[in-house]
Structure formats: structure tokens, C-alpha cells
Specification:
The complex is a heterodimer of chains A (about 210) and B (about 280). Chain A has about 210 residues and is an all-alpha fold. Chain A is about 70% helix and about 0% strand. Chain A folds into two domains: about 110 residues, Orthogonal Bundle (Rna Polymerase Sigma Factor, Chain: A), CATH 1.10.1740.10; about 70 residues, Winged helix-like DNA-binding domain superfamily/Winged helix DNA-binding domain (Arc Repressor Mutant, subunit A). The longest helix of chain A has 23 residues. In chain B, helix 7 packs across helix 8 and helix 7 packs across helix 9. Chain B is mainly alpha-helical and about 280 residues long. In chain B, about 75% of the residues lie in helices and about 0% in strands. The relative contact order of chain B is 0.04. Classes of the chains: A mainly alpha (about 210), B mainly alpha (about 280). Chains A and B meet through helix 3, helix 4, helix 6 and helix 9 of A and helix 1, helix 2 and helix 3 of B.
Chain lengths: ~210, ~280
């Protein structure tokens, strides 16, 4: 059951990635996230596994980029899923599961910031340099430099703008959903996202020779 | 639709660059941890634990309440239970009472031959006789409550009668009443017990008399000895006040034969009154 669902989910995720979204809700014969959550509420662990496989990587990347520390991101990742598991009894499919999941993740991150007020700004994430097959060293170096600039620009973004950008890219949330998750109004969320995209585009388009 | 288009702040270059960069996947151990946690949360044990806790609390409270209630009502419950058992036993005994003739015949077969048949009278008639005697008797003012008290009272009355007969005194109206109230059908063991009690009472009484007499004589002897020792001077102090009375006292001692005392008194008299002119007989 889980294997079948997973075999269906993976092409969907590939399709979503091809259009630039880590996850795009697809209606049809694929069980809805809320339905899976309700099945898990009734004790169906396979439904939870399907749900988890859909959201584990985007959520992990979201937390990794947001926290900028791998261990912290993993801790918060477990914490988020633990809260989802505990909240299964009181879960009501009033909103999209993705919105629910990332709101929990956002709140966990905010709690982490409050617990650790001396939040270190030093990022430990490094851009891995891997040469793609058939790629020349010059091309690989240029691509890695672009990644490095983007990564640096992303890490240099203010937390709110980075949060909005990651919610848009990893969770595929709309501006309204971003506003809902971050607890801000729609215009604020929209301006945060716009500023983030502008800064990142500037970093990408930046001439490496000027730097 | 327009709203959705407006909501999306897409930049293909930024999105593509980010997609190319962000290819991290959640570590497999982290996936295992989360899935184990999720599986443990819906395991039968966890489900059982979810409802077992309130049930355990409810059971504990109920048991505690029952225990406290039982402790608080234990004495009254026991008394009631004992009373119920006793009443049930007495009812059962009443139901199991045989006819008096059957009881007499059966007990007569089992009883020793020396015993008179009166000793095996039925319990009902004996109880009736005891009740009748208790209602007519005025020997004791206290109400007669049970069979043992009645039996004791009759024994006392018999002993009193015997004592009066032996001492020859008039038995009086109480003896008459006791005789009248003595049941005509007394068992042999009762009679023998009464006789033994009477003999014991008589022996005790004689012993007490003897002890009384001896004690009195001993006390009298002791008192005389003490008085003699205490009155070592034969003539009292008042007599000794004047020589005339004292010498008269000495003369009376001599006339009564108490020469030693008269001599002692005369020696003392001469020490006190050396110049008194007495006659020759006083020397």
C-alpha cells in the first residue's frame, strides 16, 4: 500500500521539481494529505509513512536553510514531526496539511530562537562542489561559484525574508499561506518575498569578476 | 486566478538556481527515528496506555472509596451480621426442637442410670418453670435474666434453708417462699451440687467461728499482758500524791496477796516520803 502510494508520489514530485516547486498538491487518485493524516489518526502507520515521504525532504531543506546549522535543523525536524504525531488526535482538515505542517515548523523555529537568544549568525553550511558527468572543470567551477553566491545571499537574508522565500520555494505556499504560516498580513508577506527574490537575483546576476 | 498569479512572485532564474543548489535530503537515520516514533504512538500498547491510565485512576479511586466505606461501616456491619446469625441460629434451633417425649426418651437412653428421670425434663418445660419461678420469687430484687442466675438463686436459697435448720432457727417467711419457689423437679446434679455447697458453707462457718474464738482469746491475753506491762505501778499516780493514800494502797495490796507489788510500792514510798511515820504493819 505504502509502496504503491510512494511509486505514485515520486513522479509527482519529479514533475513538481521540474516546474520549480518541491511539492505541488495534486488532486485525483492520490490520497490527499489530510486524508492520510486522518487515516494515521485511526492507526494506519502506512498512511503516515506516505505522508512523511512526501514532506520530509522539503521540510528538512526548509529547516536547514532557515537554521543554517545541520544539528539544529535535525533537532527541530524531529520536534516538528513529533508534534505532528501528537496532534493527530486533534487534527481537523480545516486547512491544507502543508500549511499546518509548516506553521508547526515555523513555530518550532521561533521557539528555538527564543530558547537560544544568542543565536549564532555564523553559518556552517558549505556549498559542495561536485562535477556533473560530462561537465568541464571550468563550467563546474562557474556553477559552484553561482551556488556559493546564492547560498551566501540566502544566508545573508534577514530571517523573515529567508523564511518567506523558503516557504515559497520548498513548501510551494502562496503569499496568503505564507502570511498565515508566519502570522503576518498578506502585504507584509508579499513584500518580504519580493525583497528576498530581488536580493537573490542580484547575487546570481552579480559579475564574478567584480567581486 | 488573477489573485493566484499575483500571489506568485516567481523568478525563474532564482528558482532554477535554488533548485540546482538545494538538493539535500533528510538523513536516513532521521527518517527511521521519525517513523519509529510515529509507529510507537499508534501501537496497541500506546493505545491501551491511553485508556488504561484513566481506567486505572478510576479503579484506584473506586477501591479507595470502597475500602474507606468498608472501614467506616465495619463495626455496625459485624454487629448486624452477628445478630442476624444469632437470630438465624435461634430460629433454626427452634425449628429443630423435638417433641418433649422424644427428647426425654433419647436422653434417658444416653443418661447414666443413677440419675433420676427428672433430670431429663424437656427444655421447654424447664424454661417455663424457671420463668414462673422468676416471676414469683422475691428473694432477689434484681430481675432474673437467664437460666444460670435462676439456678444460682435456687442453690443459695437451699443453702440458707439448710443453715437455718442446723442452727434451729425459724426459717421464716423467706424460707417458706424459697421452699415454695423451689422447683419440684430438680435434677440430681443440682441436688448434689446444692448439698456439696451446703456442706462447704457449714464447714466454712464452723471454721470461721473457731477462728473467731481463738482470735478473741488471743486478743484478750495479749491485751492483759499489755495492760500488766503498761501498769507496772500497782498504785496509781493520784494515790501516790499523798503519803496517807499511798500507804493505804500498799496495805490493800498486802491484804490482796500481792506482796511483791506491795513491797515494791513501799520501797518507792520510802524513797519519796522517808520521814513519814507509818505503823509497824506497813514495814
Amino acid at each position: 500500500m505504502a509502496a504503491n502510494a510512494e511509486s505514485v508520489v515520486r513522479p509527482v514530485k519529479a514533475l513538481s521539481s521540474s516546474i520549480g516547486l518541491a511539492y505541488a498538491p495534486v488532486m485525483g487518485h492520490i490520497p490527499d494529505d489530510s486524508a492520510l493524516m486522518l487515516r494515521y489518526k485511526d492507526g494506519d502507520i502506512a498512511a503516515f509513512e506516505t505522508l512523511y515521504r512526501r514532506h520530509n525532504d522539503p521540510l528538512y531543506r526548509y529547516l536547514l536553510r532557515l537554521c543554517r546549522h545541520r544539528d539544529t535543523a535535525e533537532d527541530i525536524f524531529q520536534d516538528v514531526w513529533g508534534k505532528i504525531v501528537k496532534a493527530r488526535a486533534s487534527y481537523r482538515p480545516t486547512a491544507k496539511f502543508t500549511t499546518f505542517l509548516y506553521r508547526v515548523a515555523h513555530n518550532c523555529f521561533i521557539d528555538h530562537l527564543r530558547r537560544n537568544k544568542r543565536h549564532s549568525n555564523a553559518a556552517e553550511l558549505e556549498v559542495e562542489l561536485h562535477a556533473h558527468p560530462g561537465e568541464t572543470l571550468e563550467t563546474a567551477t562557474e556553477r559552484s561559484l553561482a551556488k556559493e553566491r546564492l547560498s551566501k545571499a540566502l544566508l545573508d537574508l534577514p530571517d523573515e525574508q529567508r523564511d518567506a522565500f523558503l516557504l515559497h520555494e520548498e513548501a510551494g505556499l502562496s503569499i496568503d499561506d505564507i502570511a498565515l504560516v508566519t502570522g503576518s498580513n498578506r502585504e507584509t508577506a508579499k513584500s518580504r518575498l519580493r525583497y528576498a527574490v530581488q536580493k537573490l537575483r542580484s547575487a546570481i546576476d552579480e559579475d564574478p569578476e567584480q567581486t | 486566478m488573477k489573485r493566484d498569479a499575483e500571489n506568485r512572485v516567481n523568478d525563474a532564474s532564482v528558482t532554477g538556481a535554488y533548485r540546482a543548489m538545494a538538493n539535500e535530503r533528510a538523513p536516513a537515520p532521521l527518517d527511521e527515528k521519525v517513523l519509529k516514533m510515529a509507529a510507537a504512538a499508534v501501537s496497541p500498547y500506546a493505545r491501551a496506555r491511553a485508556w488504561m491510565r484513566p481506567v486505572a485512576w478510576a479503579a484506584t479511586i473506586a477501591l479507595s472509596f470502597a475500602f474507606v466505606l468498608e472501614l467506616s461501616q465495619l463495626p455496625s456491619t459485624d454487629l448486624n451480621a452477628t445478630g442476624a446469625i444469632q437470630s438465624a441460629d435461634s430460629d433454626a434451633l427452634d425449628q429443630r426442637v423435638m417433641p418433649s417425649e422424644d427428647v426425654a426418651a433419647k436422653v434417658g437412653r444416653l443418661a447414666p442410670q443413677s440419675l433420676p428421670p427428672a433430670s431429663i425434663e424437656p427444655a421447654d418445660s424447664r424454661q417455663q418453670a424457671e420463668r414462673k419461678r422468676a416471676s414469683t420469687s422475691t428473694y432477689l430484687d434484681a430481675p432474673v435474666k437467664d437460666e444460670f442466675a435462676l439456678r444460682e438463686m435456687s442453690v443459695l436459697q437451699g443453702a440458707e434453708e439448710l443453715a437455718r435448720a442446723q442452727t434451729g432457727s425459724d426459717p421464716g417467711p423467706k424460707a417458706d417462699r424459697a421452699a415454695a419457689s423451689t422447683p419440684s423437679t430438680m435434677s440430681a446434679d443440682n441436688v448434689s451440687a446444692e448439698l456439696a455447697a451446703k456442706r462447704r458453707d457449714e464447714a466454712d462457718r464452723q471454721l470461721a467461728k473457731r477462728v473467731n474464738t481463738e482470735a478473741r482469746s488471743a486478743a484478750a491475753t495479749f491485751a492483759a499482758t499489755v495492760s500488766e506491762e503498761a501498769t507496772d505501778q500497782a498504785c496509781p499516780a493520784a494515790v501516790r500524791a499523798t503519803p496517807e493514800t499511798w500507804i493505804i494502797c500498799i496495805r490493800e495490796l498486802r491484804e490482796s496477796g500481792r506482796d511483791k507489788q506491795a513491797e515494791d510500792e513501799y520501797i518507792e514510798f520510802r524513797q519519796v516520803f522517808p520521814d513519814f511515820d507509818d505503823s509497824d504493819t506497813d514495814k
